[in-house]
Amino acid sequence: MPPRKKFSKGKIIDSAFEIARIEGLESITIRKVAEKLGSSIAPIYVNFETVDELKAEVVKKTFGVSHQLLMEHDTGNPFRDIGIASLRFAKEYSVLFMDLVMKQNEYMNDYDETMGKDLVELMKKDTALKDFTDKELMEILKKMRIFQVGLSVMVANGLLSVDVNEEMILESTANDIILAAKQRKKGE
């Protein structure tokens, strides 16, 4: 009898991520992951007690991919980079984007609090935002996120005409939100 193949936890997560990337999070099953690995279900259950535990790890990996896309857009304008990375994620990982953004799920419960703090820290490096408090930056981020999610949904679903430059729209809207916040701050 040939020896059983051993799979690392990371390899199992990668296989489940590929299933989710193409078919969605709800398509992840222990059996599908085992098939993708060319294995029985045993190695998966050695590493994960339930499919929900595996899905949670896939979501963590997804957030890691999203963060990596952000780090690849280091233009010196962090606020712009956040939006561009989000649009890129919506294009390249449209099924996962739609699963996480368009469907109610427990995976996004902590997203705003956790990622929001990280993104505010990143925004502090943007010279156009240097005069804002953390609270004001969070408010700017929330407003931009509302716009950016809508734009990303349109991008993920192919709803924008080919002559629309989503990066220019994103940048223009970001500038408008920052300008309005600066004017409001002056008026206080």
Automatic annotation (TrEMBL):
Q: Which InterPro entries match?
A: Homeodomain-like_sf, HTH_TetR
Q: What GO molecular function annotation could you give as one example from this UniProt entry?
A: DNA binding
Q: Where are the transmembrane segments?
A: none
Tagged with keyword DNA-binding: yes
Keywords attached to this entry: DNA-binding
Which positions make up the DNA-binding region? 29-48
- Give residue ranges for domain HTH tetR-type: 6-66
Gene3D superfamilies in alphabetical order: Tetracycline Repressor, domain 2 (1.10.357.10)
Q: Does the keyword DNA-binding apply?
A: yes
Q: How is this protein named in the record?
A: TetR/AcrR family transcriptional regulator
Source organism (scientific name): Fredinandcohnia quinoae
Lineage of origin: Bacteria, Bacillati, Bacillota, Bacilli, Bacillales
